[in-house]
Amino acid sequence: MNKKLLLTALLILGTAFWGISFSVTKMAVGGLSQSTFLLYRFLLATLVLSVAFYRQLKNTGPTSIVQGIMLAILLTASINFSTLGIKYAPASQCAFVAGTGVILIPVLKLLIYKKQVEMNTWLAAAVALAGLFIVSVRSDFTVGVGDMYTVIATFGFAFYLIRVEKFSASGNIVHTIVPMFATCTLIMFCIAMADSSAEWLPERRSFWIGVIYCALFSTAYVYTVSNVAQRYISAEKVAIIYLFEPIFAAVASVIILGETLSWRLLVGGSLIFAGTLISEINWAALKKSDRIAGGPEM
Fold first, then answer.
1. 298 belongs to a structural domain
2. Major place of localization (predicted)?
3. Cβ distance 204 to 241 under 8 Å?
């Protein structure tokens, strides 16, 4: 099989793993504190990634360690709030709300770096915000606590991705992965120690299944494959593949958790998905393609 085709298939599988992780996490942390769950998830992921990136780990310098620590602060905050959101809101709903992050990134770049934002991004943001309103805002115009946590997590993850892009431009981002997750583990250990409701050795089987699944598949596997894949697949194509995460999450929530997809989620989720898709369309390339297909203009 062609290497590019194989990596595309592995990325799609990784996106499915991410989507399924919303339901797995909800089963794992239901009624329990998320602090020890995330501590064990990050610890296992760090151990696995230390083996996977052994060569890079030997050559990790001070700059990569500092970058990893900076990324870990944002990533830990994002995943912590995301897990809290999943505790208080349907898994499928959290996945669609989190999907707005793809559109949020260019808007934040405008505010931080004064980078120009294409018109399709503004259109996408308007469509996605309409979807977010339908999904999250109730009839009495209140927003659920789970949705608020997920929105905070989405901002955190957007800032994390912006920093990853910045660090990638200055060197090999792979060297930051192990220090990053090691720092995530340390941060969650401190949070768990301060958490009076933390249960260090839960007897619930679903808790440990969730830890193993999220550590191996939605953390170690996905980060390894995505870093390798982006050497051969353009960022634009990778972003389009990631668009299907909420779809996998919605299907998994129905099968695993028995959730029902309300009209609000179907309509609002469709708008969020449409907005995300609009944000990835390269209108300039399409116009150029149309001109070539239509021959020289008269």
1. no
2. membrane
3. no
Helix 3-29 to helix 34-52 angle (10° resolution) is 160
Question: By three-state DSSP, how is residue 222 classified?
Answer: helix
pLDDT of residue 239: 62
Residue 152 lies in a domain: yes
For residue 281, which phi and psi values (nearest 5 degrees)? Answer: -80, 130
Q: Sign of dihedral through CA atoms 272, 20, 223, 152?
A: positive
Residues 6+ apart with CB under 8 A from 257: 23, 26, 27, 90, 91
* Residues spanned by the domain of 94: 3-293
For residue 112, tell me if it sits in a domain.
yes
Task: Name residue 52's amino acid.
Answer: A
Confidence at residue 11, expressed as pLDDT on a 0 to 100 scale: 85
Cα separation, 99 vs 139, whole angstroms = 23
The number of residues making up the chain comes to 298
Q: Which residues of 231-255 are buried (b: 16+ CB within 10 A; e: fewer)?
A: eebeeeebeebbbbbbbbbbbbbee
The answer to whether residue 229 sits within a structural domain is yes
Q: Which two tokens stand for residue 189?
A: 């250990």
The one-letter code for the residue type at 169 is A
What are the tens digits of pLDDT across the range 223-273?
A: 778 767 766 765 556 666 776 778 888 888 888 988 887 777 788 778 877
pTM (predicted TM-score): 0.81
Contact status, residue 185 vs residue 42, Cβ threshold 8 Å: yes
User: How many domains is the chain built from?
Assistant: 1
Q: How far is CA 36 from each of CA 18, 43, 177, 199, 283, rounded to the nearest angstrom?
A: 20, 10, 21, 7, 46
Distance CA 53, CA 35 (A): 26
Task: Kindly give, in sequence order, each residue whose CB lies less than 8 Å from that of residue 7, ignoring residues fewer than 6 positions away.
Answer: 225, 228, 229, 232, 233
Residues 6 or more apart whose CB falls under 8 angstroms from that of 256 comprise 20, 23, 24, 27
